Amino acid sequence: MITPIIPAGERVVLLEEFTGKGCTNCPKGSREIENLLSVYQEKLVVISIHANYFADPQFFPLGQYDLRTDEGEALFDYLGPNLGYPAGVIDRRKFNNDFQQGRNVWAGYVQQESEIEPTVEFTIERTYDEGSRHLHLLVEGRAKTNITEPVRISVAVTESGIIDAQDDAEVSPHIVPDYVHNHVLRDMLTPYDGQDLAPSLAEAQDFSAEFDYDVDAAWNAGMCNIIVFISLRANSGDISVLQAGETALVE
């Protein structure tokens, strides 16, 4: 059992990246993500979503794995329109009227979001049985201010260290058979757009949510992370993330 402590009073930013094995420019996005993680460390969590055209083996039959998920395909539309690959969505917030942004502006928007005072805080406690591969997850948190809009919780499983082919414009030959794919979305314990948590939250009001999940036997549990984030579900279309957090599946 482990209870990660999200830095008190600090914002943890969520970056959702749309990518694909057939996208020759997407490794540039992956390298930018690692640069950002080296700077922001535990204040940034990343989900790399293989979705749509460049991730479809029908069009790009690279390697042995299909890294798409139903949730990822739904998110591609939900957080659209797509303006090109790689595309990053920062805290599910629109910048210049679009969710999806090119990699050259990720750093600026991540910095901008990191400076916002979080309106909720939470801890993640997980119990994972390596024999049965069963996960029990408890998220407990508190509102730091009044939140009048409905609030949702999302939980995702990612896996890093997946070895499979990738088209990479910056190397020769372009097809890298042993490319390392990191932060790959494997599944969600909630609907793609979140699970209802509360119709509103008053300042200092507590909230909690529990989940049970059986981890796929094909995944390397030691390379999996659990990502949790709290977001709005406002009638105005504001679905921005209020706070995010991450823990390894295996201690």
**Structural category:** mainly beta
Look up the CATH topology: Immunoglobulin-like
- The CATH architecture is Sandwich
Q: What is the CATH first-level class name?
A: Mainly Beta
Name the CATH superfamily classification.
Answer: Immunoglobulins
Largest sheet: 5 strands, antiparallel
- Which percent bin holds the helix content? 10-25%
What proportion of the residues form beta strands (DSSP E)?
A: 35-45%
Number of helices: 3
Q: How many domains is the backbone divided into?
A: 1
Topology as a string of helices (H) and strands (E): EHEHEEHEEEEEEEEEE
Low-confidence runs? 1-7
What is the mean pLDDT?
94
Shape annotation: globular
What is the terminal-to-terminal distance? Answer: 8 Å
The number of strands is 14
CA-atom Rg in angstroms? 18 Å
Features:
Immunoglobulin-like, 251 residues, 13% helix, four-stranded mixed sheet, globular, mainly beta
Protein model, in words:
The protein has 251 residues and is mainly beta. It has a single domain (13-248), classed as Immunoglobulin-like, CATH 2.60.40.10. It contains 3 helices and 14 strands. It has helices at residues 26-40, 70-78, 106-114; strands at residues 13-19, 44-50, 87-90, 100-102, 120-129, 134-143, 151-159, 162-167, 175-181, 184-188, 195-198, 206-214, 224-232, 241-248. The strands form 4 sheets. Strands 7, 10, 11, 13 and 14 form a 5-stranded antiparallel sheet that branches. It is globular. The relative contact order is 0.22.
